[in-house]
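Run log // design_07
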C-alpha cells in the first residue's frame, strides 16, 4: 500500500500523484475554511451552509439539506446558529405562506467577501493558464467528484440509519 492507503500496484504513478494531491487539496480546503469560520465566529459547517445560501439565495431548510447532504435536523441547528449571529433571517415563502425560507443577510456577505478576494484573484490567475478545452475537462472532473462525494455521503447516511 502506498502512503495514501491505495493499492499502489493497481495505480499508475500519475494516478497515485493525482489521488495524493486531491486528498491534499481537500485537507487544505477544510483547514482554510475552518480558519475563515473562526474569524467569522462560526463553525465550518455553518460557514459552508452560509456559502450555499449566498450562492443560491433563499431556500427552505429541506432544500438546504438536499444541497448540503446534511439531515434536516442538522440544517435546522445550522439555521438557528446563523440566525443568532445575524447572517440569515427566516421569512415566509412568497409562494406558500405556510413554508419558511432562509435568506442570507446582504451585510453578512459584504463582511465575508473581502476574506476571499486574494484567493479568488489567485485562482483566476491559475485558471487563465489553461485553454477552454482543458478547463472543460477540469470542470467535468470536478463535477463528477462533487457528485461522487454527495453520493458517498448519502450512502454512508443510509448505512448508518440501517445500523441503528
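design_07 sequence
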Amino acid at each position: 500500500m502506498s502512503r495514501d492507503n491505495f493499492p499502489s500496484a493497481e495505480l499508475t504513478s500519475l494516478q497515485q500523484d493525482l489521488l495524493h494531491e486531491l486528498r491534499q487539496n481537500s485537507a487544505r480546503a477544510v483547514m482554510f475554511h475552518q480558519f475563515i469560520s473562526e474569524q467569522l465566529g462560526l463553525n465550518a459547517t455553518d460557514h459552508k451552509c452560509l456559502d450555499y445560501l449566498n450562492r443560491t439565495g433563499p431556500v427552505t431548510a429541506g432544500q438546504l439539506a438536499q444541497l448540503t447532504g446534511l439531515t434536516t435536523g442538522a440544517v435546522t441547528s445550522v439555521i438557528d446558529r446563523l440566525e443568532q449571529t445575524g447572517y440569515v433571517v427566516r421569512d415566509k415563502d412568497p409562494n406558500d405562506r405556510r413554508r419558511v425560507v432562509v435568506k442570507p443577510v446582504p451585510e453578512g456577505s459584504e463582511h465575508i467577501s473581502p476574506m476571499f478576494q486574494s484567493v479568488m484573484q489567485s485562482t483566476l490567475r491559475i485558471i487563465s493558464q489553461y485553454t477552454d478545452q482543458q478547463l472543460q475537462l477540469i470542470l467535468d472532473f470536478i463535477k463528477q467528484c462533487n457528485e461522487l462525494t454527495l453520493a458517498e455521503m448519502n450512502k454512508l447516511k443510509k448505512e448508518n440509519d440501517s445500523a441503528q
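The longest strand covers residues 88-92.
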